[in-house]
Write a structure and sequence with these properties.
The protein is of the alpha/beta class and 265 residues long. Helix content is 23%, strand content 24%. It has six helices and 14 strands. Helix 1 packs parallel to helix 5. It comes from Chara braunii. Belongs to the peptidase C14B family. It holds the Pfam family Peptidase_C14.
């Protein structure tokens, strides 16, 4: 049985067009610790993509779009029944126009080489492209996704090319991990006001055991922000901090259920 993971943490510090996040690389370190200590992942089976080598001392590639897609190809290649495939992403998410989507918008994640101008984002990875990588995974493979990102920013706390500092979580300074696509905002509101589209709610119930197949964890739904925060003096993703902390604090991470993990987080 193989256990493989792709861990992605993007600060965007050298991007120049996207606000810097402070916590994603620390999230990757936390995820790595939990996977190796609680779930028996070997370091050789972790594909790490981060853009802050000063924080992450191990070998890692830059989380560019091409490297990220190549990492997902590595993850699914040769997958067999009984294998465990794990993906963690800490960074920015957003929405872009999509004719194929029910709401006219599609969720995307922003690699380190994404760009942004007055018309919106470029060089992103769409929801469909991401999931297409897993089409070849056979039945019986456990696939776990953890996204510590927002896919629609709170208008009071973020904009596409600048951000506001808010005071909320534990009275600490926090920054949203979702970015508005400036080229979409007006069009999105118009669609809503016209009443031609309504939100389509869907979701799988929690499974009995933590990380049962399939399993996906999101820091927020499409209406909520996800936070980059300082907790106990350390820059982290708020969701990642409590999610992995709950597993670490359990007597045996493999025994914790999804229900209890959700409550603890």
């Amino acid at each position: 049985m193989a256990r493989k993971a792709v861990l992605i943490g993007i600060s965007y510090a050298d991007n120049g067009q996207i606000p810097t996040l402070d916590g994603p690389v620390h999230d990757v370190l936390h995820a790595k610790s939990v996977l190796t200590l609680s779930y028996g992942f070997a370091e050789s089976d972790l594909f790490v993509l981060v853009d802050d080598p000063c924080v992450y001392k191990g070998g890692a590639l830059s989380p560019t779009k091409s490297n990220l897609l190549a990492a997902l190809d590595w993850l699914v290649k040769g997958a067999r029944e009984g294998d465990i495939l794990y993906v963690h992403f800490s960074g920015y998410g957003s929405q872009v126009p999509s004719k194929a989507s029910f709401e006219g918008l599609e969720e995307v994640i922003l690699p380190v080489d994404a760009t942004c101008d007055a018309s919106g984002f470029r060089n992103f990875i769409t929801h469909d492209v991401f999931l297409e990588k897993f089409d070849c995974v056979p039945k019986g493979v456990t696939v776990v996704f953890v996204f510590d990102s927002g896919f629609r920013a709170d208008n009071e706390c973020a904009a596409a090319v600048h951000h506001y500092t808010c005071r909320s979580l534990l009275n600490k300074a926090v920054r949203t991990r979702g970015l508005e696509n400036v080229g979409v905002r007006a069009g999105y509101r118009k669609l809503k006001e016209d009443g031609r589209f309504a939100a389509l709610k869907s979701g799988n119930p929690l499974r009995d055991r933590c990380f049962a197949t399939p399993c996906a964890w999101f820091a927020s739904d499409e209406r909520q922000p996800s936070w980059d925060a300082k907790i106990e003096g350390k820059a982290v993703g708020a969701f990642s901090y409590y999610f992995y902390g709950a597993i670490s604090n359990s007597s045996n991470g493999t025994d914790i259920t999804n229900d209890s993990l959700l409550s603890a987080t």
